[in-house]
Amino acid sequence: MNFNPVELIIKKKTGKSLSFSELKYFIESYLNNKLPEYQMASLLMAINLQGMEIKEIQTLTEIYIESGKRIKFPSNYRTIDKHSTGGVGDKISIVLAPIIAACEGKIPMISGRGLGHTGGTLDKLESIPGFRTNLSEEQFRKLVDEIGFSIIGQSDELIPADRRIYALRGVTGTVDSLSLITASIMSKKIAEGAQNLVIDLKVGLGAFIKNIETANELADLLIKTGEKFGQRVSVIISNMNSPLGEYAGNALEIRECIEYLKGKNIPDIDLLTKTLASEMLLLSDITSNKIEAETMINNSIKNRTALDSFRKFVKAQGGNPEVCDDPSILPQAEYEIPIISDNEGWVESIDTQNIGYALIDIGAGRKALDSKLNYASGTYLPKKIGNHVRKGEQIGKVFCDEEECGKEVAKKILGSYKISNIEVKPQKLIIKVIRYNN
Ligand code: URA
What we know:
- It is built from 16 helices and 13 strands.
- It has helices spanning about 5-15, 20-30, 35-50, 55-65, 90-100, 120-125, 135-145, 160-170, 180-190, 210-230, 250-260, 265-285, 290-300, 305-315, 350-360, 405-415; strands spanning about 80-85, 105-110, 150-155, 195-205, 230-240, 245-250, 335-340, 345-350, 380, 390, 395-400, 415-420, 430-435.
- The strands form 4 sheets. The chain has a 4-stranded mixed β-sheet with strand order 1-4-5-13, with helices on both faces. A 4-stranded antiparallel β-sheet has the order 6-9-11-7, sandwiched between helices.
- α10 links the parallel β4 (about 195-205) and β5.
- The longest helix has 17 residues, at about 210-230.
- The protein is globular, with a radius of gyration of 21 Å.
- The site of uracil has 9 residues, from α9.
Protein backbone atom coordinates (compact mmCIF):
# COMPACT_ATOMS: atom_id res chain seq x y z
CA MET A 1 0.00 0.00 0.00
CA ASN A 2 1.23 3.51 -0.82
CA PHE A 3 0.95 6.43 1.62
CA ASN A 4 1.88 10.07 1.43
CA PRO A 5 4.89 10.45 3.79
CA VAL A 6 4.00 14.09 4.55
CA GLU A 7 0.54 13.01 5.79
CA LEU A 8 2.14 10.38 8.02
CA ILE A 9 4.57 12.94 9.47
CA ILE A 10 1.68 15.33 10.17
CA LYS A 11 -0.37 12.50 11.70
CA LYS A 12 2.43 11.80 14.18
CA LYS A 13 3.16 15.49 14.71
CA THR A 14 -0.47 15.96 15.83
CA GLY A 15 -0.17 13.13 18.36
CA LYS A 16 -2.00 10.30 16.53
CA SER A 17 -0.82 6.70 16.39
CA LEU A 18 0.62 5.21 13.22
CA SER A 19 -0.56 1.75 12.16
CA PHE A 20 1.60 -1.27 11.30
CA SER A 21 1.19 -0.68 7.55
CA GLU A 22 1.91 3.06 7.82
CA LEU A 23 5.10 2.53 9.84
CA LYS A 24 6.18 -0.35 7.62
CA TYR A 25 5.65 1.72 4.47
CA PHE A 26 7.65 4.63 5.88
CA ILE A 27 10.60 2.57 7.12
CA GLU A 28 10.75 0.23 4.11
CA SER A 29 10.69 3.19 1.72
CA TYR A 30 13.53 4.80 3.71
CA LEU A 31 15.62 1.61 3.65
CA ASN A 32 15.02 1.25 -0.11
CA ASN A 33 16.18 4.86 -0.59
CA LYS A 34 12.73 5.85 -1.90
CA LEU A 35 12.20 8.28 0.95
CA PRO A 36 14.80 10.98 1.72
CA GLU A 37 16.77 11.41 4.96
CA TYR A 38 14.95 14.70 5.72
CA GLN A 39 11.51 13.03 5.82
CA MET A 40 12.81 10.24 8.05
CA ALA A 41 14.47 12.87 10.28
CA SER A 42 11.19 14.77 10.41
CA LEU A 43 9.20 11.69 11.46
CA LEU A 44 11.82 10.89 14.13
CA MET A 45 11.46 14.41 15.54
CA ALA A 46 7.65 14.05 15.55
CA ILE A 47 7.97 10.71 17.42
CA ASN A 48 10.49 12.31 19.80
CA LEU A 49 8.08 15.16 20.61
CA GLN A 50 4.79 13.21 20.68
CA GLY A 51 5.87 9.75 21.89
CA MET A 52 4.21 6.46 20.96
CA GLU A 53 1.78 4.11 22.66
CA ILE A 54 3.18 0.78 23.86
CA LYS A 55 1.45 -1.13 21.00
CA GLU A 56 2.94 1.29 18.48
CA ILE A 57 6.41 0.83 20.04
CA GLN A 58 6.04 -2.96 19.83
CA THR A 59 4.96 -2.60 16.19
CA LEU A 60 7.99 -0.41 15.45
CA THR A 61 10.23 -3.00 17.16
CA GLU A 62 8.70 -5.75 15.00
CA ILE A 63 9.27 -3.73 11.81
CA TYR A 64 12.90 -3.11 12.81
CA ILE A 65 13.40 -6.87 13.45
CA GLU A 66 11.68 -7.84 10.20
CA SER A 67 13.94 -5.51 8.22
CA GLY A 68 16.60 -8.26 8.53
CA LYS A 69 17.10 -11.79 9.83
CA ARG A 70 16.19 -13.10 13.27
CA ILE A 71 18.81 -15.46 14.72
CA LYS A 72 17.74 -18.47 16.80
CA PHE A 73 20.08 -20.51 19.00
CA PRO A 74 19.28 -23.99 20.38
CA SER A 75 17.24 -23.67 23.60
CA ASN A 76 19.89 -25.51 25.66
CA TYR A 77 22.24 -22.56 24.97
CA ARG A 78 20.58 -20.30 27.60
CA THR A 79 21.61 -17.20 25.70
CA ILE A 80 21.92 -14.08 27.80
CA ASP A 81 22.86 -10.54 26.93
CA LYS A 82 23.23 -7.14 28.52
CA HIS A 83 22.50 -3.73 27.05
CA SER A 84 23.08 -0.22 28.28
CA THR A 85 20.90 2.76 27.46
CA GLY A 86 24.13 4.74 27.02
CA GLY A 87 26.53 6.85 29.02
CA VAL A 88 29.99 8.44 29.15
CA GLY A 89 32.91 6.09 29.83
CA ASP A 90 30.52 3.13 29.73
CA LYS A 91 32.77 0.24 28.75
CA ILE A 92 30.98 -2.41 30.79
CA SER A 93 29.92 -4.68 27.87
CA ILE A 94 33.59 -5.12 26.95
CA VAL A 95 34.50 -6.62 30.33
CA LEU A 96 31.15 -8.23 31.10
CA ALA A 97 30.87 -10.43 27.98
CA PRO A 98 34.23 -12.22 28.55
CA ILE A 99 33.38 -12.69 32.24
CA ILE A 100 30.02 -14.32 31.42
CA ALA A 101 31.64 -16.44 28.69
CA ALA A 102 34.23 -17.61 31.24
CA CYS A 103 31.28 -18.63 33.45
CA GLU A 104 29.85 -20.80 30.61
CA GLY A 105 27.24 -18.29 29.43
CA LYS A 106 26.51 -17.67 25.73
CA ILE A 107 26.32 -14.00 24.74
CA PRO A 108 25.27 -13.09 21.19
CA MET A 109 25.74 -9.32 21.46
CA ILE A 110 24.58 -6.85 18.81
CA SER A 111 25.76 -3.48 19.95
CA GLY A 112 25.76 0.16 18.82
CA ARG A 113 28.09 3.04 17.99
CA GLY A 114 28.34 6.34 19.80
CA LEU A 115 24.98 8.09 19.96
CA GLY A 116 24.70 11.81 20.77
CA HIS A 117 27.07 12.54 23.66
CA THR A 118 27.49 8.85 24.59
CA GLY A 119 30.18 6.41 23.47
CA GLY A 120 29.49 3.13 21.66
CA THR A 121 30.87 -0.37 22.24
CA LEU A 122 31.52 -0.92 18.50
CA ASP A 123 33.61 2.25 18.19
CA LYS A 124 35.65 1.30 21.26
CA LEU A 125 36.35 -2.20 19.92
CA GLU A 126 37.28 -0.87 16.48
CA SER A 127 40.09 1.14 18.09
CA ILE A 128 41.94 -2.19 18.40
CA PRO A 129 43.99 -2.45 15.19
CA GLY A 130 42.32 -4.86 12.74
CA PHE A 131 39.21 -5.45 14.85
CA ARG A 132 36.01 -6.04 12.83
CA THR A 133 32.43 -5.70 14.03
CA ASN A 134 30.83 -6.51 10.66
CA LEU A 135 30.86 -10.30 10.77
CA SER A 136 28.38 -12.44 8.85
CA GLU A 137 25.58 -14.18 10.74
CA GLU A 138 27.42 -17.47 10.29
CA GLN A 139 30.69 -16.14 11.74
CA PHE A 140 28.73 -14.58 14.62
CA ARG A 141 27.05 -17.91 15.48
CA LYS A 142 30.38 -19.74 15.25
CA LEU A 143 32.06 -17.38 17.74
CA VAL A 144 29.15 -17.57 20.19
CA ASP A 145 29.42 -21.35 19.95
CA GLU A 146 33.21 -21.62 20.25
CA ILE A 147 34.25 -18.67 22.44
CA GLY A 148 30.96 -18.00 24.23
CA PHE A 149 30.46 -14.53 22.83
CA SER A 150 30.75 -12.22 19.88
CA ILE A 151 30.03 -8.48 19.57
CA ILE A 152 28.90 -7.16 16.21
CA GLY A 153 26.87 -4.28 14.81
CA GLN A 154 23.62 -3.98 12.96
CA SER A 155 24.19 -4.72 9.26
CA ASP A 156 22.37 -5.17 5.95
CA GLU A 157 21.51 -8.68 7.25
CA LEU A 158 20.67 -7.82 10.87
CA ILE A 159 18.26 -5.02 11.78
CA PRO A 160 19.30 -2.69 8.95
CA ALA A 161 16.45 -0.39 10.04
CA ASP A 162 18.13 0.24 13.39
CA ARG A 163 21.53 0.69 11.74
CA ARG A 164 20.30 3.53 9.51
CA ILE A 165 17.88 5.15 11.97
CA TYR A 166 20.26 4.91 14.95
CA ALA A 167 22.93 6.81 13.02
CA LEU A 168 20.41 9.42 11.86
CA ARG A 169 19.11 9.96 15.42
CA GLY A 170 22.65 10.64 16.62
CA VAL A 171 22.94 13.69 14.36
CA THR A 172 19.35 15.01 14.45
CA GLY A 173 18.81 15.56 18.18
CA THR A 174 16.38 12.62 18.45
CA VAL A 175 18.28 10.35 20.79
CA ASP A 176 16.31 10.79 24.00
CA SER A 177 12.92 9.49 22.81
CA LEU A 178 11.75 6.60 25.03
CA SER A 179 9.84 5.05 22.11
CA LEU A 180 12.86 5.15 19.78
CA ILE A 181 15.24 3.93 22.50
CA THR A 182 12.94 0.98 23.25
CA ALA A 183 12.54 -0.08 19.60
CA SER A 184 16.27 0.35 18.96
CA ILE A 185 17.46 -1.66 21.95
CA MET A 186 14.83 -4.37 21.87
CA SER A 187 15.03 -5.01 18.10
CA LYS A 188 18.78 -5.67 18.40
CA LYS A 189 18.38 -7.82 21.47
CA ILE A 190 15.51 -9.90 20.06
CA ALA A 191 16.94 -10.34 16.55
CA GLU A 192 20.29 -11.56 17.96
CA GLY A 193 18.56 -14.52 19.65
CA ALA A 194 19.12 -13.70 23.34
CA GLN A 195 16.51 -15.51 25.45
CA ASN A 196 17.41 -13.46 28.52
CA LEU A 197 18.41 -9.83 28.79
CA VAL A 198 19.70 -7.59 31.58
CA ILE A 199 19.42 -3.89 30.83
CA ASP A 200 21.62 -1.28 32.46
CA LEU A 201 19.25 1.67 32.43
CA LYS A 202 21.29 4.76 33.11
CA VAL A 203 19.83 7.81 34.77
CA GLY A 204 21.49 11.15 35.50
CA LEU A 205 23.34 14.06 33.94
CA GLY A 206 25.35 11.85 31.56
CA ALA A 207 22.42 9.68 30.46
CA PHE A 208 19.58 10.25 28.01
CA ILE A 209 17.22 9.71 30.95
CA LYS A 210 17.60 12.46 33.54
CA ASN A 211 15.22 11.42 36.33
CA ILE A 212 14.00 8.29 38.08
CA GLU A 213 10.34 8.70 37.02
CA THR A 214 11.33 8.58 33.34
CA ALA A 215 13.71 5.68 34.09
CA ASN A 216 10.82 3.70 35.60
CA GLU A 217 8.67 4.49 32.55
CA LEU A 218 11.41 3.29 30.17
CA ALA A 219 12.00 0.14 32.26
CA ASP A 220 8.31 -0.71 31.89
CA LEU A 221 8.41 -0.22 28.08
CA LEU A 222 11.53 -2.40 27.76
CA ILE A 223 10.12 -5.20 29.94
CA LYS A 224 6.72 -5.19 28.15
CA THR A 225 8.36 -5.20 24.72
CA GLY A 226 10.62 -8.11 25.76
CA GLU A 227 7.55 -10.02 27.02
CA LYS A 228 5.72 -9.54 23.71
CA PHE A 229 8.61 -11.31 21.92
CA GLY A 230 9.12 -14.04 24.57
CA GLN A 231 12.29 -12.54 26.10
CA ARG A 232 12.92 -12.43 29.88
CA VAL A 233 14.13 -8.95 30.82
CA SER A 234 15.56 -7.63 34.11
CA VAL A 235 16.50 -3.96 34.51
CA ILE A 236 19.17 -2.42 36.73
CA ILE A 237 18.77 1.33 37.10
CA SER A 238 22.25 2.83 37.60
CA ASN A 239 23.63 6.29 38.31
CA MET A 240 25.19 8.19 35.37
CA ASN A 241 25.98 11.46 37.12
CA SER A 242 29.75 10.86 36.76
CA PRO A 243 31.68 9.33 33.84
CA LEU A 244 32.11 5.61 34.49
CA GLY A 245 35.61 4.41 35.39
CA GLU A 246 38.56 6.77 35.00
CA TYR A 247 38.82 7.10 31.21
CA ALA A 248 36.46 8.13 28.41
CA GLY A 249 37.54 7.80 24.78
CA ASN A 250 37.71 4.75 22.56
CA ALA A 251 41.26 3.32 22.81
CA LEU A 252 41.70 4.66 26.36
CA GLU A 253 38.67 2.66 27.46
CA ILE A 254 39.95 -0.54 25.83
CA ARG A 255 43.17 -0.15 27.83
CA GLU A 256 41.14 0.36 31.00
CA CYS A 257 39.06 -2.77 30.28
CA ILE A 258 42.19 -4.88 29.87
CA GLU A 259 43.59 -3.53 33.15
CA TYR A 260 40.30 -4.41 34.88
CA LEU A 261 40.33 -7.94 33.46
CA LYS A 262 43.90 -8.26 34.81
CA GLY A 263 42.62 -7.49 38.30
CA LYS A 264 43.03 -3.70 38.69
CA ASN A 265 40.56 -2.35 41.24
CA ILE A 266 38.39 0.30 39.58
CA PRO A 267 35.55 0.58 42.12
CA ASP A 268 32.61 1.80 39.98
CA ILE A 269 33.44 -0.48 37.05
CA ASP A 270 33.80 -3.37 39.48
CA LEU A 271 30.51 -2.81 41.29
CA LEU A 272 28.45 -2.30 38.14
CA THR A 273 30.07 -5.19 36.25
CA LYS A 274 29.58 -7.61 39.12
CA THR A 275 25.99 -6.51 39.76
CA LEU A 276 25.07 -7.00 36.09
CA ALA A 277 27.07 -10.25 35.76
CA SER A 278 25.42 -11.77 38.79
CA GLU A 279 21.92 -10.89 37.47
CA MET A 280 22.87 -12.43 34.11
CA LEU A 281 23.99 -15.72 35.65
CA LEU A 282 20.81 -15.92 37.74
CA LEU A 283 18.42 -14.89 34.95
CA SER A 284 19.86 -17.44 32.52
CA ASP A 285 19.73 -20.19 35.20
CA ILE A 286 23.48 -20.82 34.99
CA THR A 287 23.19 -20.82 38.77
CA SER A 288 20.30 -20.15 41.14
CA ASN A 289 22.57 -19.10 43.98
CA LYS A 290 23.75 -15.47 44.26
CA ILE A 291 26.83 -16.34 46.35
CA GLU A 292 27.83 -18.97 43.81
CA ALA A 293 27.33 -16.44 40.98
CA GLU A 294 29.62 -13.96 42.75
CA THR A 295 32.28 -16.62 43.33
CA MET A 296 32.20 -17.64 39.66
CA ILE A 297 32.59 -14.01 38.57
CA ASN A 298 35.45 -13.28 41.00
CA ASN A 299 37.26 -16.47 39.94
CA SER A 300 36.98 -15.59 36.25
CA ILE A 301 38.99 -12.43 36.93
CA LYS A 302 41.38 -13.94 39.47
CA ASN A 303 42.21 -16.95 37.27
CA ARG A 304 42.36 -14.77 34.15
CA THR A 305 39.84 -16.98 32.33
CA ALA A 306 37.86 -13.82 31.44
CA LEU A 307 41.03 -12.22 30.04
CA ASP A 308 41.68 -15.40 28.02
CA SER A 309 38.11 -15.20 26.60
CA PHE A 310 38.72 -11.56 25.68
CA ARG A 311 42.02 -12.45 23.96
CA LYS A 312 40.35 -15.21 21.89
CA PHE A 313 37.49 -12.85 20.98
CA VAL A 314 39.85 -10.09 19.79
CA LYS A 315 41.79 -12.56 17.64
CA ALA A 316 38.64 -14.18 16.21
CA GLN A 317 37.24 -10.79 15.17
CA GLY A 318 40.43 -9.82 13.35
CA GLY A 319 42.07 -7.69 16.06
CA ASN A 320 45.60 -7.95 17.36
CA PRO A 321 45.36 -10.07 20.56
CA GLU A 322 48.77 -8.80 21.72
CA VAL A 323 46.90 -5.69 22.82
CA CYS A 324 46.23 -7.66 26.02
CA ASP A 325 49.97 -7.65 26.86
CA ASP A 326 51.09 -4.46 25.13
CA PRO A 327 48.56 -1.58 25.20
CA SER A 328 50.96 0.61 23.20
CA ILE A 329 49.56 -1.24 20.16
CA LEU A 330 46.45 0.95 20.58
CA PRO A 331 46.37 4.38 18.91
CA GLN A 332 48.19 6.94 21.11
CA ALA A 333 47.46 10.65 21.25
CA GLU A 334 50.19 13.18 20.57
CA TYR A 335 49.30 15.59 23.41
CA GLU A 336 48.24 15.23 27.04
CA ILE A 337 46.69 18.46 28.33
CA PRO A 338 46.36 18.72 32.12
CA ILE A 339 43.05 19.81 33.66
CA ILE A 340 43.85 21.96 36.70
CA SER A 341 41.28 22.77 39.37
CA ASP A 342 40.78 26.50 39.99
CA ASN A 343 38.82 25.81 43.17
CA GLU A 344 39.11 24.01 46.50
CA GLY A 345 36.31 21.82 47.90
CA TRP A 346 34.24 18.74 47.16
CA VAL A 347 32.91 17.68 43.75
CA GLU A 348 29.18 18.43 43.99
CA SER A 349 28.10 17.65 40.42
CA ILE A 350 29.60 16.85 37.03
CA ASP A 351 27.84 17.86 33.82
CA THR A 352 28.69 14.51 32.25
CA GLN A 353 26.67 15.15 29.09
CA ASN A 354 28.70 18.32 28.53
CA ILE A 355 31.88 16.24 28.87
CA GLY A 356 30.53 13.75 26.29
CA TYR A 357 29.86 16.58 23.83
CA ALA A 358 33.28 18.18 24.53
CA LEU A 359 34.95 14.88 23.63
CA ILE A 360 33.28 15.02 20.21
CA ASP A 361 35.31 18.20 19.51
CA ILE A 362 38.53 16.13 19.66
CA GLY A 363 37.06 13.32 17.53
CA ALA A 364 36.10 10.80 20.23
CA GLY A 365 32.52 10.92 18.85
CA ARG A 366 30.69 12.05 15.70
CA LYS A 367 29.23 15.42 14.69
CA ALA A 368 27.82 14.17 11.39
CA LEU A 369 26.92 10.82 9.81
CA ASP A 370 30.25 10.60 7.98
CA SER A 371 32.52 12.01 10.74
CA LYS A 372 35.78 10.13 11.18
CA LEU A 373 36.71 9.17 14.73
CA ASN A 374 40.04 9.83 16.38
CA TYR A 375 40.40 6.63 18.42
CA ALA A 376 43.30 7.94 20.52
CA SER A 377 41.55 11.00 21.88
CA GLY A 378 39.69 11.15 25.18
CA THR A 379 40.08 12.07 28.80
CA TYR A 380 41.27 10.82 32.18
CA LEU A 381 38.92 11.90 34.99
CA PRO A 382 39.43 10.01 38.25
CA LYS A 383 37.45 12.41 40.51
CA LYS A 384 33.89 11.38 41.39
CA ILE A 385 31.08 13.21 43.13
CA GLY A 386 32.04 13.59 46.81
CA ASN A 387 35.82 13.57 46.16
CA HIS A 388 37.92 16.44 47.56
CA VAL A 389 39.99 18.64 45.23
CA ARG A 390 42.63 21.29 45.99
CA LYS A 391 43.10 24.56 44.11
CA GLY A 392 45.86 24.01 41.53
CA GLU A 393 45.49 20.22 41.70
CA GLN A 394 45.53 18.28 38.42
CA ILE A 395 42.10 16.64 38.35
CA GLY A 396 42.40 15.05 34.94
CA LYS A 397 43.89 15.10 31.45
CA VAL A 398 42.75 15.49 27.85
CA PHE A 399 44.39 13.24 25.23
CA CYS A 400 44.31 14.77 21.74
CA ASP A 401 46.17 15.28 18.47
CA GLU A 402 45.42 19.00 18.16
CA GLU A 403 46.83 20.98 21.05
CA GLU A 404 44.69 24.15 20.79
CA CYS A 405 41.46 22.21 20.45
CA GLY A 406 42.54 19.98 23.36
CA LYS A 407 43.06 23.06 25.56
CA GLU A 408 39.51 24.26 24.74
CA VAL A 409 38.15 20.83 25.61
CA ALA A 410 40.10 20.84 28.90
CA LYS A 411 38.40 24.18 29.73
CA LYS A 412 34.96 22.79 28.88
CA ILE A 413 35.59 19.73 31.05
CA LEU A 414 36.81 21.85 33.97
CA GLY A 415 33.67 23.98 33.62
CA SER A 416 31.55 20.82 33.91
CA TYR A 417 32.72 20.29 37.53
CA LYS A 418 30.80 22.12 40.25
CA ILE A 419 32.87 22.37 43.43
CA SER A 420 31.23 23.00 46.80
CA ASN A 421 32.94 24.32 49.91
CA ILE A 422 30.62 22.12 52.01
CA GLU A 423 31.44 18.41 52.20
CA VAL A 424 29.44 16.36 49.63
CA LYS A 425 28.50 12.67 50.08
CA PRO A 426 29.35 10.17 47.32
CA GLN A 427 26.31 8.96 45.34
CA LYS A 428 24.96 5.42 45.13
CA LEU A 429 25.84 3.72 41.83
CA ILE A 430 23.11 1.05 41.81
CA ILE A 431 19.77 2.77 42.21
CA LYS A 432 17.24 -0.03 41.69
CA VAL A 433 17.03 -3.65 40.53
CA ILE A 434 13.84 -4.71 38.72
CA ARG A 435 14.15 -8.49 38.55
CA TYR A 436 12.27 -10.56 35.96
CA ASN A 437 9.58 -12.35 37.93
CA ASN A 438 7.25 -14.30 35.66
N1 URA B 1 21.19 2.07 22.96
C1 URA B 1 20.62 1.66 21.80
O1 URA B 1 20.94 0.60 21.27
N2 URA B 1 19.69 2.42 21.24
C2 URA B 1 19.30 3.58 21.78
O2 URA B 1 18.44 4.22 21.20
C3 URA B 1 19.89 4.03 22.97
C4 URA B 1 20.83 3.24 23.54
